[in-house]
Design a protein that fits this description.
The protein has four helices and no strands. The chain is mostly helical. α1 runs antiparallel to α2 and α2 packs antiparallel against α3.
């Protein structure tokens, strides 16, 4: 996944350089770069959560709930926060007239 995000960042930067005189394109590219950064942060949290879940599976059953509550649940809260940020970013982009892929637009319309 890291390679995917690196390629995406490189492509966005190349396109920003090529279209540096197009303010609308630069806004769109900035939106997708920021969205990718949120995705990367979410992915890092999921990786941490999976590592913790693996560790939890080795604990005695009586210790698992406490481990979950103190270690894994905060990760889930952070995931939810990132998801909410991504949705808010997309809502703002759409509100500002930024063209979004149909699937994102439809999901935003359904969430109202």
């Amino acid at each position: 996944m890291e390679q995917f995000y690196k390629q995406a960042a490189d492509t966005i930067q190349r396109l920003k350089d090529e279209h540096r005189d197009n303010a609308n394109f630069l806004k769109l590219a900035g939106f997708y770069a920021a969205l990718n950064e949120q995705d990367k942060a979410g992915l890092a949290i999921v990786r941490q959560e999976m590592t913790l879940a693996s560790k939890m599976s080795t604990l005695p059953s009586g210790e698992r709930q406490g481990f979950f509550d103190h270690q894994i649940r905060p990760m889930q809260v952070r995931e939810d926060e990132i998801s909410a940020r991504e949705i808010q970013m997309a809502i703002e982009a759409k509100k500002n007239g930024m063209p979004l892929p149909d699937d994102i637009g439809k999901r935003l319309d359904k969430s109202k």
